Amino acid sequence: MKKVWKGLLAATLMAGMLAGCSGGSEEASGDKKGTVKIGGIFDLTGGTGDVGTPYAEGEKAFFESIAGEEINGNKLELIGDDYAYKIPEAQKLYQKLKSKDKVAAILGWGTGDTEALRQQVAADKLPFISASYSENLKNIDESPYNFLAAASYSDQARSVLKWIKDNHTGGTPTVALIYNDTAFGKSPIEDAKNFAKENGIEIVDEQIVDLKTLDATSQLLNMEKKNPDYAIINQTWGATATILKDAKKLGLDTQFIGLNWAAGEGLLPIAGDAAEGFIGVVTHAFPYEDLPGMEKVKKFVESKGEKLEDKNQKFIQGWVSAKIMVEGLKLAEDPTTGEGIRAGLEKISNLDLGGLAAPVTFTPDNHAGTNQIRLAEVKDGKFEVFTDYIGY
Questions:
Q1: Reduced to 3 DSSP states, what percent helix, strand and coil does the chain have, rounded to the nearest 5?
Q2: Which residue intervals define the domain Leucine-binding protein in the entry (predicted)?
């Protein structure tokens, strides 16, 4: 398995003289503290690596930006690896992070692996902030150590459907659903269908398109028979680009709207002018937005000799997830244990992220941080946000 550090976090390894290891913290005698280790489960080379790579880079960048700082007297270290979007590899990596690396919490990735791990996560009492926004993870009885740092896929779909309902003219709006046959792809589908039925919106078609597909013509031809006004896409950039390009070739006039992993700058170079008019769910800010929270990101990126404009929204998304985890550590009375970090995360109330994302709140009874999204449309090759934060 490929290691992903490249020396990124060497500055945090300040505990060489410390002895012992317990609950994710290396402790020494007297009043000295140690290093709290946070695990990372990344997709860099698998089916969602197109968005997973910049997301992981954002997480690692945030930890590097606070290297040398102490959180409740402890240094922090992020330890992660690529699992290539394979659930068995995620399980192996999880066991390594827990047993060998002694992490105190984990920043995860995919829906399938996050859901597969949640019973172990609960038993091991390891707080887990995933890049999956599966509705299932909101069940605090089954997932007491999982936290959602953005609106769930189901909440995103509900908000999109409400926006359609509020803005459609000319009778009952008709909608198709396009998704991949993974836990991630299917996550919001039943909830979307139920919400549509309750709100006078007709779901007229569903099409399954593989994450790695290079041709969606047959699925789009089938969808065309139902002539939907809108099609909601739950994919990452690659499949979304294929869908948009093939739709343009076929001359479809359906309005395509993508949930959060379908949206972002990485879509634009591969979709080309076929992306014009595409609407995307925006859970996190674009680097080119003038927002208070972007100043720290810009300062850090420039300190590395890089440019903020070379980063993308998924980088910001990873940065924010890491920031939320660290905020929980700051609020924890004991940031060296999973129980302590969970209690710290549950103290987060209306966390102001400087516009990088919607404010987040966790409580002992609710680990869904927000249900708010924005919408952006591609105009002249650039995503332009056209709503404030909205819900349903």
A1: 40, 20, 40
A2: 35-382
